[in-house]
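User: Hey, my collaborator sent me this sequence without any context and asked if I could get a structure. I don't really work with proteins. Can you help?
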Amino acid sequence: MSVCTEELVFLSEVKLHIPASQYTPEVGADLDKCIIFLKGACFPENSSVFFQPLRSFVRQNSELLRDEMEVHIELSYINSSAQRELYELLWALIERVPQMQIVIYLGEEEEMDDLKYIVDALREAGFERIEYRHDYYSGLIVAEESPPSER
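Assistant: No problem. I've predicted the 3D structure and written it out in C-alpha cell form, which is a compact way to encode the shape of the chain:
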C-alpha cells in the first residue's frame, strides 16, 4: 500500500496533502501556517516509500521553514518501521526549526506505547517541546476552499 504520485495532492509550493488510505494516515503540510499533521493509522507496506514525499517536500522547501513550526500527530496505530521513519522526519525538522513543537493527540485512549518510543528517543536526545492533548486534531484543512459561489 505504497503512496503513488496519483494520490499526492500538491496544492502549491508550500502545501502538501496525502489522503488517508486503509494503511496510511492523512498527511498535510502548510508551510505558510507552519503546520504539519499526520492523522490515522500508520502501517504502510513500505514505510520508507510512504514517508518519502513528505521528506522530499520538507527538504525541497527547507528555505521556507521558519523558526517556529508545529507537528500534530494523531495516530491510532503505528508499526515499527513507520516509527523509525517518523522519528527520522521529526529529527530532521528539529534540526532545521529552532522552535518546533510536537503535539500528540490521545483521543479517548491513553498514550500509545508505539509513539512513546519516539517520544522517549527525542527526549533522550534533548528535545522537550512535546505536548499531549486529550482530544482529536481538527486544525489544518489543507484543501483550498471553494469560491463562495460554489458553497
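In plain terms: The longest helix spans residues 80-96. You can pass these C-alpha cells on to your collaborator as they are.
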